Structures
1.
Amino acid sequence: MRSVLADLFYRNAESFPDKEAIWCDGKTVTYKEMAALVSRYSNLLISLGVKYCDHIAIPMNNSIESVALFFAAADLGVCVVPLNPSLPFEAIKSAMDAGDIKHVIARRAFFAECEKNGGLYIDGFSICLDQEYPGTVSFDTINSMSSERPEISYDVDGSESLILTMTSGSTGTPKPIDISQQNKYDRSVAHVRVYNITKDDRILAATPLYHSLAERLVILPLIIGATSVLLPRFTPAIWLKCVEEQKPTFTIAVSAQLAQILETLKKPDAPKITSFRCIVSSSALLESAVKYELIDLLQCEFHEMYGASEVSTVTDICFQTAKNKQNSVGLPFDEAQIRILRDESESDFDTDCAVGEVGEIAVKSKLQCKGYYRQETMMQAAMFEGYFRTGDLGYLDEDGYLYFAGRKKEIIITGAINVYPHDIDVVIGRIPEIEECAAFSYPDDRLGEVVALAVVAKEDEEINIRSLKTYCARNLADFQQPHKIFVLDKLPKNTMGKLQRMAILDYIRESGIEES
């Protein structure tokens, strides 16, 4: 028995040999050419001694070769551990320890940086993807390998780990999210169903391949016979140029990217975007104003999804068809069930919140990952009666629609009152001069913590603090009023453009920014 993902891919290569399989950075390969590359990759790994269920670290750059590795790994029953190549060495080392890495495939610059910091200690091989580097095998060796799919002496039944996606816990210790081949397939099938994806679609991936979103958007098209359009890196200009030339029909984009794209689309010389039939926003909630402008400009089906890497996508909403639920993140996928749990200290009589009551979002899903690799206790701690506790806050309405209210750990408890930063962000975000904003917790001797507000002005605009305070007094409840306001040049974000609310105070202190 062989891998379901690899089997589907090779079947498509036989059925559509001359069809475009993937485009990336100006280079296109057909299904036939991609199949040959995957086979050569598999044969190269076998020649270097890769074993069933070995873990291979790859500090991922978006490339056709990186996508081919996913399918070679699937065919051989091997696990890929994508890493952000720009991480500090200690973080790389910690992730490799957590991921039980045996082999490494990386670029010359990565190996040089590691050597400068004392080197990596692994039991297996290292492949250098560009040029040559001492102690590594040149990727050019792949050209001497057979382009025939290799025979293997063992079964690959789908239960094998295919990808370990790294996320960090509250301690900063990496939590490798263990996703099996079958799980990756099931997640793809669910998205094909919900978004009506077919082999005629051109599917755009515009996030780094060390992120689960991009992995989904390059694996899915190649197992259904569609075309993958992989952006080498993201800027709004690069994205728009790619869309204009490659004419993708479907994408799932990070909300922070869509906000940047909107600003570019509003410029007089912006190209007209007409190829999309469906765009989905993910990762964080879109500002309402951004959402409505995008719907107006893009003239296609526009969705928003909610999910977590551990349980995949949980809910979806199409704004054109759910007009009276515009602030919701939608209804659950068929595979998912949602509970809203009260805080343990408040749950003497009932663990489940009433309709409209904010609590922690917990999810039971057929798309749930295998667990955290070699961290079973941590995964067990995240579970409650078979439901995964997401650490997110939200509530359900009478029709079962989910509403997101922020991260549980980001709640500001001031004078024993729970304040949800997201609610404040929505109100302050309506001020025309403000580009972005974030409410956050600030230590206070009397109340323990108080509400603070970080704001970033739009280009060529100035924020009048007195006017801002008056606006807050008129539009926020007493307990939501910011006690401190800081004007920043930017808000701290991760590599996906997602707000790092818990890092705002450190950013302010490290930058020496004073209260306005």
2.
Amino acid sequence: MKKLLKNKKILFSAIGVILIIVLSVYFFTKDQKEEYNFSLAERTDLVQEISATGRIKAVDDIDLAFEKSGRINNIYIEVGDKVYKGQILAELEKAEIFAELSQARAGVASAEAKLIQLEALLEKEKNTLETLQIGTREEEILIYESKVENAEVVYEASIQNLIDKIGDSYTKSDDAIRNKIDPLFSSPRGTSPQIIFAVNDSQLENNIEWARFLIEQKLNFWSTSLQNINENLPEEKLDESKDNLNQIKLFLEDMALAINGLSVNSEFSQTIIDSYKTDIYTARTNINTAITNLSTAIEKLNTANTSLLISQNELALKKSGSTFEEISSQKAIIEQAEANIISQKAEIDLKESAVQASLAKLSKNTLRSPINGIITNQKTQVGVITSPGEIIISVISENDLEIETNIVEADIAYLKIGNKAKLSLDAYGEDVIFDAVVIKIDPAANLIEGVANYKTTLGFTETYEKIKAGMTADLDIITMELKNVIAIPYRAIIFKSGTEKLVRVLKDNNQIDEVSVKIGIVGNGSLVEIISGINEGDKVVTSIKK
């Protein structure tokens, strides 16, 4: 019984304590009020931005290679050098192409000279026809007699010119073989000349040594034959000279093949090999010149002979008078002359094509910079044989730079071409600001750590010399700018289920109204645009404090 009474006392005591606490809390808090932190809805300018990190890269990063194989003859740059567009960076050997070009240009010059002669001849033939049609006076007879005399002088001069060119052919041949080539032989003028270096092709070596023996005999016989050239017509010496020049030309081509296969060793340095190549190139050029000169001299003699015959025929026609048949014949001569001119123009076009082909080959032996920039890589050296398409030099644009960054999928919808951006570089600190603009957005996404990203490229609005490729950039891309819109702090927005958004508005009587609002962009300073629902000057609750 005592125990039960004791338990009751304890229970009543506990109830009393709880009642006292409840009453104390009630009386302590009943007069306290809620305090509201609020911000005014104000008009302001909003800027929506996307922040990202990017890297500076050159707009142009180009690897260069020759289109054809060949031995590197010159390299004019080193890594780090600044180069300009069109600057020569490296060259392959060009000796053989220069020889081809020289011969092709000589062919064009010869063909053009012949065209001038044909055009002059046509004009003469037309004058002849006119004379036949109107008759001849005594004064004209004297003129045509003078033409015959002049043609005879030109003809005699052409014969002497041909004699001189035949002699010059021998001189150039003697110099090419005995001065330029013989240093590469032992006993070059003996019965068994031997080339002083090993040739990779044994048949080629035998051909060269046998040809040198035969050429020595031809040079000796040629020299004797030319001693009485003035006593005979030069035409009798032409076949001999042509044959000798062609044989020497083929011999020099074989020598060029042999020397191109010669490698640097203890006996032959690169300098010695280069000097041998130069001598062979000079010899070939001189022989080609001799062949061209001889052909030109023959053409001049033929032309002079034709002119003389025409002048003689004209004079005879003038003296004998004209018949219908003669006039018809002269018209046929004019038609033939016109056809010859058309044919000669076609020949010039063909020879000019050969010149252009040689120039094209020459350009492929020269590697030029396609841009203004800086050399970043150089993988070769003089004397190395390069293959077509083998990258040997790399160049990047110097001041033409851009920024590459990746924009996450959540932000890409706000981004478009032309958006402006501000950026800072780690190298210069965040206080130094540069301007840029979005110029490219890749349409396809790249997954980076499982998140879709879109590569975006920005271009600088100005040229900044202190910016270098490879620097890291912190970007703020401006996606939208609004002027004079109502904005409130983003934290004042209450998101309900679905798409409803509410704002608590504090009234003058300290009462709270929850208002539905439509929001726009979130801008700088975590402010959000209010499109509808509240007015400028409304107090929007940002937090409540008891």
3.
Amino acid sequence: MTLIDEVKTRTDIVDVVASYVDLDTSSRNPKARCPFHTERTPSFYVFPETGTWRCFGACATGGDVLAFVMKQEGVEFREALHQLADKAGVKYSADTGSLGAGAEKEAAPKATVIEANEAAARWFSQMLLSSEGGAAREYLASRGIDTEMAERRGLGFAPGDGTLTLTGHLRSSQVTPEAARDARLVVQGDDKAWRDFFRGRITFQIRDRRGKVIGFGARSLDGSEPKYLNTPQTSVFDKSNVLYGIDWAADPMRQSHRAVVVEGYMDVITAQEHGFTDVVASMGTAVTPDQLKTLSQIVSGGDESGEVVLCLDSDSAGQDATLRALETAWEQFGSKLTGSTSARGRNLTVRVAMPAAGKDPDEAIKADSWAWRTSLDEASPLIEFIMQANVRRFDISTGEGKARVVQALSPLIFAVDNDYDRDIYWERLSTLLEVSTERLRSMAPRTVPRFGKGGSAASSGRFRKESISTDQLGAALTGTAANIEEHVLALVFQCPELREFVEAIPSDYFLDTVNRELFTRWVRVTTLDEMLETLSDDLTEQATRLQSLSIPPSDHARRVGEVTLCARRLRERYMRNLLKLTEITLKEEENTLEGEEREQLRNRTLDPSDHLKKVFQAGATGRV
């Protein structure tokens, strides 16, 4: 783990921001008057779930915790990193700004980290059955879980009063301090004392496919936030590629060629106890590409096709999570959205099920397990669900509402390879919106170029006659945020002649902290070597890697088209992200504001929407 990853893992952005501004933490996303300009009403918001902040006022800027400290303190990247590292108690080399050699040598082997987790799991189980675990047992009983089931499903309790601590237990056992630290079972406070990471919470063992405990989830009992807490990233645990319950579900999924993905720990436990043995959880977040890849490997093999059914909460928050998961599915499977083939060539269908009863799978199964089974069997095809969700999302009785639906869906329809299937989707959308297919096509912006068999772009404008390889752009245009950014940086690092086509890109378009810093520094200098001389180890490692990435041979015209297209994709993604954040703030706060304040908040949400419309228009004409 790099110093940057270590610092961000151990840093609470809410605590950092609150140390500088008067932060109102009464809402899910804390707010304040922006510290970077004068204003009468709060326009500065912190989003704890993503570890980011955003000003919707005059600044119109945002970023992660590092970006906040840099702007607040007026310091460079390295100084902000060092300040946060000191506060988090992270060791680093003062000369290079990276984790020191001594710290690297002290890292515990993965086997000992797992042993520490196994020891903690046993202690948590003992605490649940002790007098300390009375309240936890009462809560579990209210959810239909007795002590026998709790033991079978690996539930436990982490005391919170300080009398009995995991830290003390591990100290008296054979677990080394390094293993306890690297497993993130203990954390060091500002006073340098080591304390339990999980306190006053019910614990859930998170195991890998072999059944080894690699981390924990935990639910608060006293209503304290966050309600659910996971082990931070370790050498054996990365939330983005772990699925809760995979140790129970792997064999059943392989046999049934189906994986059902729910959102929470209790959803999985209830499903497993009621005989739905092919169920796993994404642990409260949208399904990631790595998780989908894992499921694809399990459910699809040989000539057998497989399917993934996304079954998340039926309430509004759950539907938002479902839509985020669908976006992830699109990123993973690209133009095979309709369920044909995964990136690895395995046959895979992705469908979406919404429980008919209850707000979440846990409640739906308990209310009527047969109805829940039916909802899985009758799950909607991916693109059909996206259509219905967007029709419900916007007011299609108005022209503006119809336009927003078309705006959201047209890139997905244009990306379908088969002309026959594409026509079917246009007809379906035409019926839903009561608009002719000809009119739909004239309204639809093409934000993603289509590629013919010969590899040439079918989009209009300057890319019409250029031949851009899908192999070159596939990962960048349909991959993760870092993939797009890294592709752009690799191109400009290796092809200096492309500078004039990208140096005007706002650095905010780079969401990854390291990539943003590299781009910012590259713009300031004339040559790459000049930039490399000023970098710390963490930044140098990334820059060197990007400089050595393999890029297929191409001529200058195609390179220009490639990097320009990526730049436009960065802008579109940035605007979409900004629109999502403004919609979140509007949804949370519109009902609590009155008069002028409500109107101001509404105006803030319109701005990124108008910008996004311009991005789509630029995409149709080939402009960045």
